[in-house]
Design a protein that fits this description.
There is one protein chain. With 207 residues, the chain is mainly α. It is 59% helix and 0% strand.
Length: 207
């Protein structure tokens, strides 16, 4: 099917028709023989980047950090896909959807056209001591889950989950729950000492 090419001037004109309240999105779509979704994308891009969204001809590159943050913001419920695209200057909602799909499928997100370093998205097995260290680092860095994920090569979800578990259930909540959780009475002296040391260290971190 032939896809009509709309000039930058026409797109700007169409967007202004809508923003000035002169025409509806459906009416503009009919006028230019495009989908309503296309009109919505023009409006979103114009509000995010101004006329440059249509005038700049070169392929826009997106850094791996921008891709990651956009995806994480969306998954954390910080806005709709339209709002995330507008916030980060993403020209096409389809791009964001592809990044989300890749992230959820544990694929690597890289900087566009640069062969940039991959972002760690797949979770990995961790020991109890590692989980405690991850929580310490995360809390000490203002609960920056993305930074913690990169520092310890775990997924964003793991960094967040460990921190939430600690804050709601204490250090014992970080233990592997595939087995029966030990009560303080069931721990030997070494286990009690290690738990107390971890608690003291974590508490000191939060002060």
């Amino acid at each position: 099917m032939y896809k009509r090419k709309i000039s930058a001037e026409d797109k700007i004109y169409a967007v202004n028709l809508y923003l000035d309240g002169k025409e509806s999105q459906h009416r503009i779509a009919s006028m230019f023989d495009v989908s309503v979704a296309s009109v919505q994308q023009w409006i979103r891009n114009y509000e995010s980047m101004g006329a440059d969204a249509f005038i700049l001809k070169e392929y826009k590159k997106y850094s791996k950090d921008l891709k990651q943050q956009a995806v994480l913001d969306y998954l954390a419920g910080c806005g709709s896909q339209d709002e995330i695209c507008k916030k980060y200057g993403i020209r096409s909602k389809a791009k964001l959807q592809i990044w989300i799909k890749k992230y959820n499928g544990y694929e690597k997100l890289k900087s566009s056209g640069t062969g940039g370093n991959a972002i760690m998205t797949r979770g990995r097995k961790t020991t109890f001591e590692e989980r405690v260290e991850i929580v310490q680092y995360c809390i000490a860095h203002d609960r920056n889950y993305a930074k913690t994920s990169e520092q310890y090569q775990v997924s964003y979800q793991q960094a967040r989950s460990y921190t939430v578990k600690y804050e709601t259930g204490g250090v014992e909540a970080l233990r592997d729950h595939r087995g029966k959780r030990k009560s303080p009475d069931e721990m030997n002296e070494l286990e009690k000492l290690r738990t107390e040391e971890f608690e003291m260290t974590l508490n000191a971190t939060m002060i």
